[in-house]
Amino acid sequence: MEFSVYQRAARETSQLRLGGPQGAIAPMLGLASEAGSILNVYKKYLRDGIDLAANRELLREELGDLLWYAAAVATACGLDLEDIAEANLRRTRDRYPRQHTESECGDLPVFDAGYPAWERFPRRLVVAVAERVLPSGRRASALTLVSAEPVAFPDGPVTIGGKLAGYRVGGVLGDPLTDNTRRVDAYRFHDAIHLGFMAVLGWSPVMRALLQLKRKSSPEADECEDGARAIFAEEGLAAMLSRLAKSRTGFLSATSIDGDVIEVAKAAAADLEAEAVPGWLWQAAIHQGFRAMYLLGENGGGYLVADLGARELAYRKVLAS
User: More exposed terminus of the chain, fewer Cβ within 10 Å: N or C?
Assistant: First the structure.
C-alpha cells in the first residue's frame, strides 16, 4: 500500500478534529502515547523477561497505531505522508554512513577531472608538518611537500600566462601558522583540516592556493571555485568547526559529527562545487582532518598522507624507509 493511499484511508476512520490551528494537538498527543506503548512492550521484556517474539503481534498493533497517528498529524498539518517518507529517505541516505559499494563511491564527484594535469590535485601526496618556536615565543607549524604522485611539476613551478603555477617537491607550502589566539591550542596545525577536505572530498580552495593549482583554463572555475571568496568560505568553515569540536570530543569519533555540524559544512559550501558532496562524506572528511590535527598537536608535528583515490587522510609519526 502506498503511503498516500494509507493516509487517505486513515483519515476516513478518524474521530479527531483535524481542522483549525489546534487540529494537530490531538494526533500529536496520540503519537506520543503510542510511542510510550511501544516502549512498554520492551519494558516488560527487560523487567519480566517476556520474550519479544511472544509480543510480536502486540508490537505490530502498536506500531500500526503509531503509523495511524503519524498519518493523522500529517493530515492535520497539510502534509503528504508519501512525500514525508521519500524526503526522509533522501535525507538519511545523504546523512548516515553506510557500507558503500565501489559503484556508489565511483559516482562521487571528482571536481578537477577533465582539467589539464597541471591544474589537478596529485592523487597522493605526503606533507611534513614541523613545529618551531618563533622569536616572539609563539609556536608555529610549517608544511613541506615531501612527495606527490603523479608529479605534474618535476622541475618545480612554471610560468603559465605570466603567472607562476605548480609546486616543488621538497618545497615549503605557505607561511608558518600560529594558533592566532590568546589561548594556546592546536589550531596552528589546522591545515590538516584542509588536507582532510582535499583527500576525502577532492575539494579545497585553500590547498589549491598553497599548491598553486588554480584552474586557470576555466575562467569561471578560477574565479568562482578557486578564488578568494571560496578560500574565505573554507577558512571560515575550518574556524567554525574548531569551535564546534570543543563540545563534541574534538570530532575524534565520526559519531560526534552530528547533523547540525554537517549542516554548517553544507551551508559554508553553498553555491560552491562542494555542495554536491553527500553528508556522510563530509562526516568522514571532518573526522579525518580533526584526528590528524589532534595527532599533530600531541606529537609536535609529523607527516600527513593524503590519498585522493582512497579518499583518506592518514597521520604518520615517522615515514617508513
Answer: C
